[in-house]
């Protein structure tokens, strides 16, 4: 990507800005689908700034350049921006810390801010224009200044999409489309336009390989209240047999580039758009007579609730993942004992290789985070060939990894002591474990907004004036994106009906604690919402969490005097479940490792 220096790129961008009388240009981390993981074509912010974190907003003015990132990326951004003129702007819960507030404060009345509207959601545009209009600052969304500069820009991916195996999905695509059209009819809405790729993949019971780690494909989609369906996609991506199946289901196929043209000619009086998932470019293409109904994609709610059969498939994926992890951790333990040369890169290679031995493995569900000591204190650290550490001496090794299987998506974090851990490391580790157990044992009313559960998990850390800067839990897709909404166990997330916890939702449980420059600790399992059985329902139904992840939690760092009897019982029950489930599938050293590491404390 580095075909020019960052300074030269900024210089050329500013020349374009000056030509068009633009006073500030915004480069978000986004594509026309508002995706988390982006095709290389849309990794504009990475190309222009050199910062490789997954989230961040770059703002360039005539004399300044700033990158806004949250606490997960402060250390990483500081390192990667060190030799550039781009200043790190620390984003936090304070609205005054945003790039929008900065622009409103630093720009002059009647200035013009520009961005590529294809990468700006409706909600983001509304927030930006509302703040800037107070100073009569205009917001221009038709300017793409990057394409003329990025000479060797990668092409958009056109990998083939494919249909999921029969029997994996609870509903057919026609039944799912009918769910959407029925919702539209009930709400008296004429049509619905969808840009979010995981929603489209879920609707069609198809998957793809256009985006790293996420089994999705580039497309937009339209559904009417009568069930008329149009798919906007590069036609060469669809194998002949699948194309015939889609046409048989009366799904019209139009070119990917025609989505805005289609919207411009639409006759719907009302159109449902998710303001967080549809670009202002597409919204602006609509006829003036069309009323935009802004609400969450109904598919986001539908796909978040997994059916019993889908949960069974996910449990099978967890079984395979657990088997692979036992082989990996058994290898790691012996390699450390034998003083083999191991680096953070080795960890990534080995854990992926053991997963690849399992049936139906498609690839990692995200970039493996293997951070030793200080590197583990970076929540989204990723070792590279240019910068990595060896696993040697004493310390803590944090490993956050996951797999995409044809029948499920996994995500797990474990921390392993290398050599002899210190008392302070053990203390921190035990506090994080207490936080993990606190959430795992939670019982709460069905429909409770997920963000309200966050304080339960953080309580053991808060009691010692400690905290962590990321959410405690995110939704996870069914053989789909590892990060999925609408629910999120994070006090940063909105508390409303869209974030309600319902039976069948899958969430991560991943509290952490990070000492900058020293070590990081995070313990993560995936959990699913189950209804608590009660003889009477005087106060309504309640939910509890069932653990899905099958892998021992290291006991070598536990200060047992900090755990209550109830917490010890929870850990022992979990390890008993892990052993009973995995033991019949293991032999040799992996089997011995599992027995050793699931002993009761």
UniProtKB/TrEMBL annotation:
Q: Keyword Metal-binding: yes or no?
A: yes
Coiled-coil annotated spans: none
The record, for SUPFAM superfamilies, names: Creatinase/aminopeptidase, Creatinase/prolidase N-terminal domain
Which superkingdom is the protein from?
Bacteria
Gene Ontology cellular-component terms listed: cytoplasm
Q: Respond yes or no to whether keyword Disulfide bond is given for this record.
A: no
CDD domains attached to this UniProt entry: APP
Domain Peptidase M24 C-terminal span(s) in chain numbering: 541-601
Gene Ontology MF terms: metal ion binding; metalloaminopeptidase activity
Sequence ranges assigned to domain Creatinase N-terminal in this UniProt record? 10-136
Query: Where in this chain does the record put each Peptidase M24 domain?
Result: 313-528
The alphabetical list of record keywords is: Hydrolase, Metal-binding
Q: Which family does it belong to?
A: Belongs to the peptidase M24B family.
**In its UniProt entry, what is this protein called?**
Peptidase M24 domain-containing protein
> Species name for this entry?
Acinetobacter nectaris CIP 110549
Taxonomic lineage from the root: Bacteria, Pseudomonadati, Pseudomonadota, Gammaproteobacteria, Moraxellales
């Amino acid at each position: 990507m580095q075909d020019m220096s960052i300074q030269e790129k900024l210089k050329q961008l500013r020349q374009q800005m000056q030509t068009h009388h633009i006073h500030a240009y915004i480069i978000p981390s986004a594509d026309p689908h508002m995706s988390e993981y982006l095709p290389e074509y849309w990794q504009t912010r990475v190309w222009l700034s050199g910062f490789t974190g997954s989230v961040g907003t770059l703002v360039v003015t005539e004399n300044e350049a700033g990158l806004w990132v949250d606490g997960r990326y402060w250390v990483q951004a500081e390192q990667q921006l060190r030799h550039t003129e781009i200043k790190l702007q620390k984003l936090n819960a304070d609205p005054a810390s945003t790039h929008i507030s900065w622009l409103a404060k630093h720009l002059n009345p009647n200035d013009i801010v520009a961005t590529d509207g294809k990468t700006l959601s409706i909600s983001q545009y509304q927030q930006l224009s509302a703040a800037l209009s107070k100073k009569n600052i205009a917001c221009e969304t038709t300017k793409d200044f990057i394409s003329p500069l990025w000479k060797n820009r990668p092409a958009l991916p056109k990998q083939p999409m494919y249909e999921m195996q029969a029997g994996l999905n609870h509903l057919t695509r026609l039944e799912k489309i009918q769910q959407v059209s029925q919702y539209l009819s009930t709400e008296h809405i004429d049509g619905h336009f969808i840009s979010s790729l995981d929603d489209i993949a879920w609707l069609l019971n198809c998957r793809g390989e256009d985006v790293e780690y996420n089994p999705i494909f580039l497309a937009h989609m339209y559904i009417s209240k009568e069930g008329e369906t149009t798919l906007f996609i590069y036609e060469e991506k669809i194998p002949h047999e699948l194309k015939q199946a889609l046409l048989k289901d009366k799904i019209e196929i139009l070119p990917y580039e025609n989505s805005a043209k289609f919207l411009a000619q639409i006759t719907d009086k009302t159109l449902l758009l998710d303001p967080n998932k549809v670009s202002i470019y597409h919204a602006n293409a609509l006829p003036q007579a069309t009323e935009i109904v802004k609400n969450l994609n109904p598919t986001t709610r539908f796909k978040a609730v997994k059916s019993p059969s889908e949960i069974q498939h996910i449990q099978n994926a967890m079984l395979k993942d657990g088997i692979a992890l036992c082989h990996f951790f058994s290898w790691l333990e012996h390699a450390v004992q034998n003083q083999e040369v191991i680096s953070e890169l080795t960890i990534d290679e080995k854990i992926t290789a053991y997963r690849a031995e399992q049936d139906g493995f498609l690839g990692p569900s995200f970039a493996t985070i293997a951070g030793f000591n200080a590197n583990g204190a970076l929540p989204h650290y990723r070792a590279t060939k240019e910068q990595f550490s060896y696993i040697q001496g004493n310390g803590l090794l944090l490993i956050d990894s996951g797999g995409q299987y044809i029948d499920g998506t996994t995500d797990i974090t474990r921390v392993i002591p290398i050599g002899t851990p210190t008392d302070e490391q053990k203390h921190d580790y035990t506090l994080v474990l207490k936080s993990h157990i606190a959430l795992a044992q939670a019982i709460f009313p069905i429909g409770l907004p997920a963000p309200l559960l966050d304080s339960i998990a953080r309580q053991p850390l808060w009691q010692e004036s400690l905290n962590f800067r990321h959410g405690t839990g995110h939704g996870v897709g069914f053989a789909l994106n590892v990060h999925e909404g609408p629910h999120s166990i994070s006090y940063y997330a909105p508390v409303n009906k869209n974030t309600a916890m319902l039976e069948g939702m899958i969430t991560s449980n991943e509290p952490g604690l990070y000492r900058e420059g020293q070590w990081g600790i995070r313990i993560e399992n995936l959990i699913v919402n189950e209804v608590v059985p009660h003889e009477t329902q005087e106060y309504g139904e309640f939910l509890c969490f069932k653990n899905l992840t099958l892998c021992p939690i290291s006991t070598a760092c536990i200060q047992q005097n900090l755990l209550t009897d109830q917490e010890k019982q929870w850990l022992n029950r979990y390890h008993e479940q892990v052993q009973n489930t995995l033991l019949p599938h293991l032999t040799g050293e992996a089997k011995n490792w599992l027995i050793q590491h699931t002993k009761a404390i």
